[in-house]
Amino acid sequence: MYRIGIHRRLGDVDTALAYAGRLQTEVLPTAERRARAATDTARALLDAGDTAGAFAQLRLVELAAPHEARRPAVRALTARIADRRPDLPGLADYAHRTTAVASPH
């Protein structure tokens, strides 16, 4: 899982995506790790120019661990996707759900 992020940071997006394609997320032990794998894959896809694919991964983040989709780094990734493709179906709703601040009650 960590190889996705490492290779992306090293600028080797193709290798990062190759590792992402082989990763069996269902065997990851926690929802947070599944969400992290999807986040790292979304970043790599966005770097590769696949904005729609990156958004599909963000949806997996929310499915795996909704609280992870509200993290500042993931919200920043959502904003980058929205800047590139504001027309993506479901993106506005996703952004609204994941950027809403919880009530202090």
Report what the structure shows.
The chain has 105 residues and is mostly helical. It has a single domain, classed as Serine Threonine Protein Phosphatase 5, Tetratricopeptide repeat (Alpha Horseshoe). Helix content is 68%, strand content 0%. The chain is built from 6 helices and no strands. Helix 3 (31-47) packs antiparallel against helix 4, helix 4 (51-64) runs antiparallel to helix 5 and helix 5 (72-84) packs antiparallel against helix 6 (91-99). The N and C termini lie far apart (37 Å).
Question: Summed up, what is this model?
Answer:
The protein has six helices and no strands.
* Cα gyration radius (Å): 13 Å
Number of strands: 0
Domain count: 1
Largest sheet: none
CATH class: Mainly Alpha
Helical segment count: 6
Regions with little confidence, pLDDT below 50 for 5+ residues: none
Oligomeric grouping of the chains: single chain
Strand content: under 5%
Return the CATH architecture: Alpha Horseshoe
Give the topology string: H per helix, E per strand: HHHHHH
N-C termini distance: 37 Å
Can you tell me the CATH topology? Serine Threonine Protein Phosphatase 5, Tetratricopeptide repeat
Secondary-structure-based class equals mainly alpha
Mean pLDDT: 93
- Percentage of residues in helical conformation: 55-70%
Shape, principal axes of CA atoms? globular
